[in-house]
Structure formats: structure tokens, C-alpha cells
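Hey, resending since the last one bounced:
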Amino acid sequence: MSFKRKLIATTIIAGLGLGAGQAHAVGEYDPPVSFDLTFNLHIDDDLAEQDIFVEKVPGSGQVYRPTVGERDLSLPLYSTAEPVEHTPFEPDNLGPWPKGEPLGITLGEWFQAGGKGTYSCQDGEGTLDLTFTKLVPNGVYTVWHAFMAWPPTEPFIGTYDLPVGARDGSQSVFVADANGNAVVERTFKPCLQLTGEHLAAELAIVYHSDGKTYGPLPGEFASDSHVHLYVGLPKRSGI
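The C-alpha cells again:
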């Protein structure tokens, strides 16, 4: 495990109130919950898109993160030649980075994506019922349960990402149809961990431009894996 992932894991353990090797002392089940979910793009929250890139000067071989101020929605999208860490709360960290492979869609097409659904937890079992539209046609995606320190650290240390459902990632995978639409229905144990005192929890869907998935890992962000949509999870009861 890298130092960075150790640091994030330590933050997660601390946020959950657990010591190293300590069992999570909870009741038989968490209280039942049920709520609606509406997924966002990064630009919906006035953030730069983190894992897709545009070449501002054609032929330069240099790409940049697009922001809400980008007006040319016809620009083709690219990956980067090497992985790039997420820095959503550093508005000036927009590039450039060496251009990778074309993603085969435009910025405007990426921005058309949407998603909504419901989540419920009852008797220790979680259920997701999600509908997505205008994703990458025939795109391979995975669903992630992510945590970050909140308020965010300076510098940002990243997120701790768990595949939704089975820890081997088998329940997290889905494929959009030829029109970019998808329905994701999953039931799993235990329920999702909601936002706490020190950790913000969210769900995110990741597009895999290489057509591969990586089990318990999301893959290399920016070069092969690209967060498309996400939604924050509410605070758990009692906070």
C-alpha cells in the first residue's frame, strides 16, 4: 500500500472512531434509511472536471482540465498519457499534461450525462436503484463508495474508494447501452456508510476508457478511469 493510501485509510479509520485492529462496535443493524439520489458533474458544483481533458491548441500534445467557463462544447476529449491525481479543490491545477488517447466523444456529449435513483437500508441490507442517461455509448462503468476528509485537507489527500457491493468489485460493474442509458439495481450487505463528523461519503460512477475494470481498485484516474457523475450521501442519523 502506498504512503498516500495509508494516509487516507488512517483518516477513514479515525473518522469512523476505530483504533487499529478494533472491531466496529454497532448495534444489530443501523437504523433504516431511504432517500433519493441526483448525480452531478463536477462543473455542476463549480469544479473543474477531473479526469477528462481538452487540447486547447490543436496539435500541441498538451491537454487541460475543462471548467465551467469552457464554451466550445465541440472540443474532442482525451485521456492523459500518465495518471493524474484528483485535485478538485485546487482551481488552478488545470494542466497542461501530455495528451493520451482520444475518448471518442466531445465535451458537450460528456456534459449531457445525468443520473438519479434511490437508496435504502433495512435490516443491514442496502439497495440501490439507479437510472443513467447520456453516458458514453456502450461504455464500461463501475460504481464506487468514496470517502474524503471534510472539510478537505490542504493539500487534498484524495479519496478512499470502495466498490459498491462485493469487495471484489463484481457488483460494481455495468455497461451503458448504445444510447448511453443504463439501469443499475444492486442489493448488498452491509449498508453504505453515510457522511459522518469528519468524513464526507459519496457515490460516484467511473467510466473506463480502456474497456477494463480492476476489481477492488478503480484503475488509473485520468489515463484509463474517469469519474463521470457523483452524488454526496447525507449525514447518518444522530449527527
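Residues 1-26 have pLDDT under 50 and may be disordered.

Sorry for the duplicate.
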